[in-house]
Specification:
Layout lengths: L6 E5 L6 H12 L2 E4 H14 L7 H7 L5 E5 L5 E5 L2 E2 L7 H11 L2 H17 L2 E5 L2 H5 L5 E6 L2 H14 L6 H17 L12 E4 L5 H16 L8
Helix pairs in contact: 2-4, 4-8, 7-8
Length: 233
């Protein structure tokens, strides 16, 4: 009999550290990390490369059957995104693609197109899946649901430092305004809006560094799931 796979859903607003912390946590407990934001970014990159208008949801939906999007994993367990045969893992992290990701994520056809891919990964692996509707829509029966958040200024500061480290030009105040705008878009969109699942545990990382935030998540996993991947209470 095939064993039942465990799943951890981590949702939260843009810039809360979902992707980096989920990846670190997955490596620590031996789970597969599924960064759904990277998948939407890949769709956004495809739309931008086709010069589709940002208000043209119909054109975005029409391009979906043409796309070859693959989620691959390196020897270190890191998620790699491949678009039409090209590894775009780094390309999708630009500030411009971040805006596109929010746009395509609000299109019902895009969410429906990617839903099956996300669920299949959870059916064949122990996963930590992060996004904005994982605990509410994608994996409503997840073994543990965490709502990861932080104050907007904290999230904007982290994004600013991340872009600076990559050598990109960045304005911290503009990034804060972008964070606030994206929060509104994600919470007010009609298709799978960002919201905390009723049974999710809140993890607020405001004022916390990377290691302190990681330890907070690890403790939640140990408390709610017991011994996982050799990591006990």
């Amino acid at each position: 009999m095939r064993r039942a796979y465990r799943s951890i859903a981590i949702d939260g607003p843009s810039g809360a550290g979902k992707s980096s912390l989920s990846g670190q946590l997955a490596r620590a407990i031996g789970y597969l990390h599924v960064d759904t934001g990277a998948i939407y970014r890949t769709v956004g990159l495809a739309a931008s490369r086709r010069a589709i208008g940002k208000e043209d949801a119909q054109a975005v939906a029409a391009m979906l059957p043409e796309l070859d999007i693959q989620v691959r994993y390196g020897p270190d367990g890191g998620q790699r995104m491949v678009l039409d045969g090209e590894d775009v893992t780094e390309a999708i992290r630009s500030h411009a693609v971040s805006e596109w990701a929010s746009i395509v994520a609000a299109i019902p056809a895009v969410r429906a197109f990617l839903l099956d891919t996300q669920r299949k990964l959870a059916q064949s692996h122990d996963v930590i899946m992060d996004g904005r509707d994982i605990g509410t829509v994608v994996l409503p029966d997840a073994d543990l649901k965490i709502f990861l958040t932080a104050q907007p200024k904290d999230r904007a500061r982290r994004r600013y430092l991340e872009l600076c480290q990559r050598g990109e030009q960045a304005d911290e105040e503009q990034i804060l305004q972008d964070v606030l705008r994206r929060d509104r878009q994600d919470m007010e969109r009609a298709a799978s809006p960002l919201r905390q699942a009723p049974d999710a545990v809140v993890a607020d990382t405001t004022g916390k560094g990377r290691e302190e935030s990681f330890q907070l998540l690890l403790k939640l996993v140990q408390t709610h799931l017991g011994e996982v991947g050799g990591v006990g209470r």
